[in-house]
């Protein structure tokens, strides 16, 4: 009898604890990416500004290891390895980086609304490789966050047509082959049942490449161009997370022209409408 009471009491305390850290207890949207430089390109720049421009309160975190694939995140999770740069943008928009942080430490730092998962770019169009690690990482994270925390999958982008990245060989050094493979993987991931949203940044970048700006959205053949390239990805995140037409958001970065901003927003909007297919941007 005493053991049963203690068990019930323990369960009760656990439920109360979970309830106390519900991400819906406040009006702040908190996003954490378990990622690499592609999550840096996607959420560390301009997403907070887009939100602030429409009165959104946001906290954004990125667990960063350059080039990290899902398999490395699984290893680090299982070993509780303190190997990440934890890059955090606070409510006020100020950025802070803490070194030597583990996944579990970052997960407990905030009552996150969204946790983002992504594959390393050379492997992002390889479904079998993704599935060797993604389910285990998802299970690990789910056990450590509120049941109300939702998961998203960050669809990355294909390389520039003349990229010298060695991983481009996985797709016969062909941009559309790489894009289609990435889109196909993200579509399959969307059907797993673990993810609230797919963030179609890869489709947004591919859409933007059909505009008058052409294939200019990376700075080195694979990482996004610092201004309008990153802004395109941020616009995609904004519209998907908040469900608001980003074309109606007046914010644009200082170094982005009016035309570039229109192209970025239109490309993102079309990607939300059709996340696995290229839509032409006639600007």
UniProtKB/TrEMBL annotation:
It comes from the Bacteria. InterPro entries: DUF4886, SGNH_hydro_sf. Residues 30-271 form the DUF4886 domain. It holds the Pfam family DUF4886. This is DUF4886 domain-containing protein.
